[in-house]
Design a protein that fits this description.
Layout (H helix, E strand, L loop, with lengths): L1 H21 L13 H28 L6 E2 L6 H26 L3 H27 E2 L4 H30 L2
């Protein structure tokens, strides 16, 4: 799980840095039609989602013993690794896909971007549900922080990214 987060995190952050470094003039276009008055919501949401991600990652990496972990009563710790992969791989693809869409719009590419965002949102929801069904939940404060963090992460990826942003981008 640690390596998935390291390589996946570098891929996500690298795609953003590289994308904006290579095409800095496209930075504004990535907002699509999101109104200026809503952009502060997105910015705050990004920081809260990142903190949420760190909260559930902390619990899973440092507080939950993989050998004792149970999801719904069965030993399924590897599910978390799959969920991280489904969060990180599409997240790393979003920037290059969207930059391509800005430069050469097409319906097929738009559908791929929508599927990409939906994959992240569904994996974020899966992370939240898996955490809710995870035992042991010790220390309790760390589990609650993980659940709260997963809620914040899902609100951003599921609502702001997968629903609201495409509605404005297409506008």
């Amino acid at each position: 799980m640690l390596w998935t987060n390291i390589f996946g995190g570098v891929a996500v952050l690298g795609s953003y840095v590289l994308g904006l470094a290579v095409r800095p003039e496209s930075a504004g276009a990535l907002w699509g039609g999101v109104p200026q008055q809503l952009r502060h919501l997105y910015t705050a949401g990004m920081f809260l989602a990142a903190l949420g991600y760190l909260a559930f990652t902390y619990f899973l990496l440092f507080r939950l013993d993989p050998d004792q972990a149970r999801i719904g009563g069965a030993p399924r710790f590897r599910l978390f690794i799959s969920l991280y992969t489904w969060i990180l791989v599409p997240s790393a693809l979003w920037m290059p896909l969207t930059l391509r869409m800005v430069e050469q719009p097409s319906l097929a590419l738009w559908l791929v971007i929508r599927l990409d965002l939906a994959a992240v949102a569904l994996a974020a929801l899966g992370m939240l549900v898996a955490l809710l069904w995870t035992k042991p939940r010790q220390p309790r404060w760390a589990w609650w922080m993980a659940v709260a963090g997963a809620c914040l992460f899902f609100l951003h990826t599921g609502v702001l990214d997968a629903i609201l942003w495409p509605a404005f981008f297409a506008a």
